[in-house]
Specification:
alpha/beta; eight-stranded mixed β-sheet; seven-stranded antiparallel β-sheet; 42 helices; 51% helix; 11% strand; elongated; magnesium
């Protein structure tokens, strides 16, 4: 045994010396240079100091040799109460360890102020109730005469005080660290204060009963213990104050610079991988977008950690120049922007990448070289200087220009080769990289701090935070007092692991459990093996081995805690803190063997479970689960970041000189029902777009619109060439005198959102109008369609009298005006650009204003409850149009729908293009919404089909600019006409109409189902021409626009072309219609006590009002001349067919529809041919104004069935006889050569 002891002693000593030698080497400047080395050195130094603290009882033993520190009655040097609690030193010490000066200063600040706060609370409760529960047994009677409370100690009073103190502490704005230290010390003193068996000393007071200073009191000794931990943490840092290099290398500034340098290099590598995979010989390797996105997200996490270190730099003031911190913040923002670009490129790769596989070569090697070189320079500067030099910034400008030239050449080459819009969009997006390089300069503004949370919201959040954690702490206190016989372990542990957010994450709790288990196990088992009952326990060898185990255990745990990418760093911290305490308690000179290992483990594990259980209860109480709390936290984070960026302002110094350019009229610029639409290439050619925009500004000037200094909204649906068109319009707007331009992020705003922005953003009704770059549901791409329309100051489309003047100007325009020297603006993120002369371009979150308006219309909480029901499920298809960001924010964000509910939610320039299931035709109907129709168990004819998977309860889709909607139930399609009638019939269930409807309207081709509902409700119902602008006057009737006219709002209106809306905006609103249906289902479900389906709502409606069987046949791309000839022939017979029978039905009306506006008296002629029969069946013909190539002939068929009739037939079958009559009346096949329609809806 002796030989074994000597061998063990020699081995242990050798290992320990190696560790110590390594630690001493790392103390020397130049050796501990990397983060890993700093962390390793700190772990070893702290282990050495920890072991040294454990040796103190051997160095300064109790004067009574037979007693250990815990029982020592007096000592010549050390306060005896400090000796009794000395074994808790590792716990406080572990929480103070950090390798950086800024972190240490922050931790010390938190520790001193926190402990001081806890001490103040404990002293105050002692003044109120002197001596606590055991005070009467050992305090002089005269002391109680000085007590503040005449009733002396009261358990109820102590509880109330503790609860108030704890709630106030949690409610306060103190940092988490201060709260932990304050509550930890207060809890440690409170438990013995409430123990009636306390007989010795004042457990919670800083002075004796006669008010003399009690430096040896338990309370003050707790304070001395924390100060000792602070001293050890300072010594542990290991810097040499006389060496500037040593000080510099221990700053958070240098650590963040090194971290950002690594992120910069890895960002370059990630871009190189994405680009390399596209090359001719590389696409054979399958591209995994999800794996790439995971790596890209990891880049963001590492950058966020670097930014967290930068927050500590404020504690290092005076050591390093403040300009360095500002420059590092700029670099962090620069890398954040590049990471976002990587995510976008990765998503492009998911959809676009394989199109490069057919032997094509993407010549971007020089672009990659410039990016790699630039990021390499950034990394080099950060590592060498923790700063960016002016030379590097200048070189980045040069590299940015060089990279942009390379990409511009590639784009031009693709255009000449007539490559697809996929290729052009992919390469064009790469140009954001050089732009980001050029933006990184010393003159760039620093990131601003986010604005403070509104007081009311902040108060509510802090209240729930305080209430939740006070509840956890109270339960732990009750356990400590009554189940553990006044042992404070559970309540102290709860004080340090309270939850910062409702719904603690699984990983955090696993960390806590592992940490407690490791700490208590590793802290006790070595003593059982080495010290307890063996000959080694009384030998020098055994003691030395025990100290060696202490050293190794502590160094491993602390290194795991400090490691940058450690997943279990919380577990390692608790391992060190609790294990360190346990190992000290077992040392012989402490005489404090822990015989309650199981109960100690139980105390700490129970603390974890209490926190977790209370979190879950509060999460349920507040109406959401843990996952929803995480979503809410993420949403708040995104909002904070958005607010941060939105409040930042960038000064743009540029020449605002107005350039006049000669031009000449271009034929064919007549706006249709929804603006001007042509092929994209036609818009891109010459001054086509500029001619139309200038004509609009000229018209507005003639109409007296206040352009000078006014606000204009400019955005679009994200289709190809949208960004370029927006930049052109902005420059022309400033030339026209506009003072402020508003743009949605990414240049995106849905058509209804544009109307909401005009009407509700800022103070409301601020802009004089807005341009919407959209061709609605028409396909996007360089070979497809582009469009533009102008909306007026009420948020609605320009009326005919205005569009007619625009047309007049397009025919006589001779010059254009633009501020050509204004640079292009970055629209990718919220930003405010300040130009000379007070001009401003403001980029804002494209979703926020529309969402705000919708929240005023609906009860989101009731819809959220419906979506949360297990029997309910839904899907929403944005068809790669502009609705994607809105859908994700509203359905998956605000309403808590499951991730993946929103399909095709990434806006694409070609709406998915030819390779998508809908071939880039983002039109929500049975023909084009292929994925939704299949998911809902339907065919394109509306028949039932088996999709081979569970069918959602509710499904909907949007078109390219998000103003249209399609509604489906399980294997059930709702026609747009029926949808409009059903929403009006159930409008009493929608909060927006709680005061009742005053009017409704439909377009003339829309079925008369709405008329039946309006008649029963006794409200006016208007029949208007196709085009949302005709509804605008009715909604504005009786307002300042048309004073003295009847008021028709609240108001609902719609068109058969899948457009529905209300008076909250002046456009049809696809999102509003879907939320209206969800609101109706939610209220009916609440009333019925079970989920009510879409089909049940429809059947209930038809049983009351009857059913208008309805269908629309579209003949697209018809020769325009032939179509006009056919219409002329039918118009010539107007009135002559009345009284004649067709298919057994007698003709009642045969005319060309003409509309006289009841509000402004304007007359709209030639709005469609009507054939109406005496049984109210209808046949309508109309030439559409939304097409681009040729003409679109629309044929509308309607057959009414009363409530007593057959209400469950297929609508397409019912109207087939009407279709045969329509083809006979029109001779459509003869005129157009078409045998069948392109689309039936």
């Amino acid at each position: 045994m002796e030989t074994f002891s000597l061998a063990a002693l020699f081995s242990t000593a050798s290992l320990l010396l190696i560790f110590l030698w390594r630690s001493l080497r790392l103390l020397r400047p130049g050796h501990a240079s990397s983060d890993t080395q700093l962390q390793y050195a700190l772990a070893l130094r702290s282990a050495a100091l920890y072991v040294l603290s454990g040796a103190l009882p051997l160095i300064f033993p109790c004067e009574q040799a037979q007693l250990g520190w815990a029982d020592c009655p007096s000592h010549w040097l050390i306060p005896t109460n400090l000796m009794r609690i000395f074994h808790y030193l590792p716990f406080w010490y572990a929480f103070l360890l950090t390798p950086y000066l800024g972190g240490l200063a922050s931790a010390i600040h938190d520790a001193i102020l926190g402990v001081g706060t806890g001490l103040a609370g404990a002293s105050l409760i002692n003044l109120l109730m002197p001596g606590g529960a055991g005070g009467p047994h050992y305090l002089p009677g005269e002391y109680f005469e000085r007590a503040w409370l005449p009733l002396r100690y009261s358990t109820t009073g102590a509880f109330l005080f503790a609860l108030c103190f704890t709630y106030g502490l949690f409610f306060s704005k103190l940092s988490v660290g201060k709260k932990q230290y304050a509550l930890g010390l207060f809890s440690e003193l409170l438990v013995p204060f409430m123990n009636p068996q306390t007989r010795t000393g004042f457990r919670a007071v800083c002075w004796d009963w006669d008010f003399s200073w009690n430096w040896n009191g338990a309370a003050m000794c707790g304070f001395w213990l924390v100060l000792l931990a602070v001293l050890l943490s300072v010594l542990t840092l290991g810097l040499k104050p006389w060496s500037f290099q040593s000080v510099e290398r221990h700053t958070a500034l240098w650590a963040s610079a090194n971290a950002l340098a690594q992120v910069a290099e890895d960002t370059a590598g990630c871009l190189e991988y994405l680009m390399t995979i596209l090359q001719k010989d590389h696409w054979k390797f399958q591209f995994h977008a999800d794996s790439s996105n995971f790596y890209i997200r990891h880049l963001g996490l590492r950058r966020s950690r670097a930014e967290a270190l930068l927050d500590l730099v404020a504690w290092e003031k005076g050591l390093l120049p403040s300009a360095k911190q500002e420059n590092l913040l700029k670099v962090a923002a620069f890398l954040r922007q590049l990471r976002q670009l990587l995510r976008i490129q990765s998503e492009h790769m998911r959809y676009f990448g394989p199109s490069f596989a057919a032997g094509e070569h993407l010549a971007v090697e020089e672009f990659l070289e410039t990016c790699s070189e630039g990021l390499g320079l950034v990394a080099q500067d950060l590592r060498q200087r923790a700063d960016l030099s002016e030379e590097t910034c200048a070189e980045l400008q040069r590299l940015g220009n060089r990279g942009d030239k390379v990409l511009l050449a590639v784009v031009r080459g693709f255009a000449q080769e007539k490559r697809s819009s996929r290729h052009l969009a992919f390469v064009d997006k790469l140009r954001s990289w050089p732009k980001a390089f050029r933006s990184l300069s010393p003159d760039a503004p620093s990131a601003a701090k986010p604005a403070a949370t509104p007081a009311a919201s902040d108060w509510a959040e802090r209240h729930w935070f305080a209430l939740r954690n006070t509840t956890s702490w109270t339960l732990a206190l009750l356990w400590s007092l009554y189940s553990r016989n006044y042992s404070c372990g559970c309540v102290v542990a709860t004080s340090f692991i309270f939850s910062q957010t409702s719904g603690s994450s699984f990983d955090v709790n696993i960390n806590r459990i592992l940490g407690v288990g490791m700490g208590l196990a590793v802290g006790n088992f070595p003593a059982l093996l080495i010290l307890d009952g063996s000959t080694l326990g009384s030998s020098v060898c055994g003691s030395f081995m025990y100290f060696a185990v202490m050293f190794v255990m502590w160094s491993l745990a602390i290194f795991g805690y400090l490691a940058t990418d450690s997943k279990y760093f919380r577990a390692c911290l608790l391992w060190a803190a609790l294990g360190g305490v346990q190992m000290l308690r077992h040392l012989p000179r402490f005489s404090r063997m822990d015989v309650e290992l199981f109960m100690a483990i139980l105390d700490n594990v129970l603390a974890i479970m209490v926190v977790f259980f209370v979190d879950m209860v509060f999460a349920y109480w507040q109406g959401s689960g843990a996952s929803e709390q995480v979503k809410a936290a993420v949403t708040r984070c995104i909002q904070d970041v958005a607010l941060l960026v939105a409040t930042s302002k960038v000064k743009v110094d540029c020449d605002l000189g107005v350039e006049t350019i000669a031009t000449k009229p271009i034929e064919g610029q007549k706006p249709g029902t929804s603006g001007l639409r042509k092929k994209t290439k036609e818009f891109m050619e010459g001054t086509y777009l500029a001619n139309f925009v200038q004509s609009v500004f000229n018209t507005l000037g003639e109409e007296g619109v206040p352009l000078a200094g006014g606000t204009l909204v400019v955005s679009g649906d994200g289709r190809f060439w949208n960004p370029e068109a927006i930049q052109i319009i902005i420059k022309m707007a400033f030339a026209a005198g506009v003072g402020r331009v508003w743009c949605g992020t990414g240049g995106l705003l849905s058509t209804p959102a544009t109307s909401a922005v005009i009407r509700a953003r800022g103070k409301g009704m601020e802009p004089f109008g807005g341009f919407i770059c959209s061709a609605s549901h028409n396909p996007g791409g360089i070979n497809d369609d582009f469009g533009i329309k102008y909306n007026c100051e009420n948020g609605g489309p320009a009326p005919e009298k205005v569009t007619n003047k625009m047309l007049e100007w397009t025919a006589k325009i001779t010059e254009l005006k633009t501020c050509s020297k204004i640079p292009d603006f970055d629209l990718s993120k919220p930003e405010t650009y300040e130009l000379p002369e007070g001009k401003v371009v403001e980029v804002f979150d494209c979703v926020e204003d529309h969402l705000k308006v919708l929240k005023q219309c609906f009860d989101f909480e009731s819809i959220k409850k419906l979506i949360a029901m297990p029997e309910f499920s839904m899907t929403y298809d944005s068809m790669c149009g502009v609705q994607g960001p809105y859908a994700r924010k509203i359905f998956e964000g605000e309403l808590g729908a499951a991730a993946g509910t929103c399909k095709n939610a990434e806006p694409l320039p070609d709406f998915g293009g030819p390779s998508s299931a809908w071939h880039g035709h983002a039109d929500p109907n049975l023909t084009y919404a292929v994925e939704l129709v299949k998911d809902m168990g339907l065919t394109k004819e509306g028949n039932k089909a088996d999709p081979g998977k569970p069918i959602p309860t509710f499904g909907a889709a949007a078109d390219g600019d998000a103003d249209r909607n399609m509604i489906c139930g399980t294997q059930f399609f709702v026609s747009p006409s029926d949808s409009l009638a059903m929403i009006v019939a159930n409008s009493n269930l929608i909060p927006q109409f709680k005061e009742g409807l005053k009017g409704c309207a439909r377009s003339m081709p829309t079925s008369a189902a709405l008329d039946l509902v309006a008649a029963k409700k006794g409200i006016p119902c208007f029949e208007v021409p196709t085009g949302w602008k005709f509804f605008g006057n009715l909604m504005d009737s009786g307002t300042s626009y048309f004073p003295g006219k009847p008021v028709y709002t609240p108001f609902i209106c719609g068109e058969e072309s899948f457009g529905t809306g209300a008076d909250h905006v002046r456009e049809k609103d696809g999102m509003w219609a879907v939320l209206a249906w969800l609101q109706i289902l939610a209220k009916k479900t609440e009333q019925a006590g079970k989920v009510v389906s879409v089909e049940e709502v429809a059947l209930e409606h038809w049983k009351e009002y009857g059913r208008n069987y309805y269908a629309r046949y579209d003949y697209e791309g018809v020769d325009k001349a032939k179509a006009e000839e056919m219409f002329a022939a039918m118009e010539a017979k107007a009135g002559s067919l009345v009284g004649q029978e067709f298919g057994g039905m007698k003709m009642k009306i045969n005319d060309m529809f003409e509309y006289t506006d009841p509000v402004d008296g304007s007359v709209s002629k030639k709005q469609g041919l009507r054939f109406i029969f005496e049984d109210n069946s209808r046949i309508i013909f109309r030439l559409s104004g939304t097409g681009v190539a040729g003409a679109t002939v629309r044929l509308y068929l309607e057959k009414y069935e009363p409530p007593s009739g057959n209400l469950t037939q297929h609508q397409f079958e019912v109207v087939k006889p009407l279709a045969a009559i329509a083809l006979e009346l029109s001779q459509l096949a003869t005129f157009t050569g078409r045998e069948g329609p392109t689309v039936i809806t």
